[in-house]
Amino acid sequence: TSGIPMLGVLSAGGCVVTLESRSLDAAELCETVQRDRVGQLNIVGDAFAKPIVAELDRAAAAGEPYDLSSLKAVVSSGTMWSKETKEAMLVHCDAALADLLGSSEGTGMAASISKRNRAAGTARFSLGENSTVLTDDGRTVEPGSGEQGVLAVGGPIPIGYYKDPEKTAATFREVDGRVWSIPGDHATVEADGTITLLGRGSACINTGGEKVYPEEVEEVLKLHGDVHDANVVGLPDERWGQRVCAVVSPDPDASTGRVPDEAALRDHCREHLAGYKCPKSILVREHIQRGPNGKPDYAWARGQFGSDEG
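The chain above was modelled as a monomer; its predicted structure follows.
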């Protein structure tokens, strides 16, 4: 997420500014942007954006707002960046927010650009010039059909994984004479040609034959006022095959100071999701563990339920 744009900046003779802390310190980040007049900030979705917004809010409330006028673009990739967090960030900086969808196996899949005069969105993207959405049998998903498919990107892509022909064959597939990189991101295509990202197939939960993508449930949980972060996993279930389970953390800056209530969270989910997508079990933990890159640690979340299966 940081390495590819960094190489581009250095290749053009630009300057790359890094932080001294070995983990995200939102105050240090904001101070560095202000001091060094940083023009572009690279982050990893809400895992970075939420702490940054909290620090910007704190400084503004104290009457000492950061000067982020140098910031022209905030670029995110790697995990979900919600509409609400984008809008909160735009209160403090007049920058273009670039939500990019791609992977090491192929960049430029899709993008979403938000500005103060352009509405932000969650998981809605415009396809890149070398991208499409394909069905399992190799057809292009028709816009507005409601059919699900997998994101595929062509153009300048890798030739495969090093010494792993099986994984190479699964990801780099030939369809109608063209090789596509298909890492496994599922999406639907709206009538206007934009896509709605559903999630990575490897994390998909199969409950009673229905597919549930953790990202969709996590975003709904995080819309609740008492929830700061969420991680959703599938655990073995004798009846359904897998059941949807969630680990949530309380909002540390919430004025109420309430601990999320399991019954209230289920009711909240039912207002936004089909019943089969709503978590059957919800645990509250002080913090949600994520990887150093900000991505969900699903193994940790499963472990909270006393199981590493699923």
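The two ends are 28 Å apart (CA to CA).
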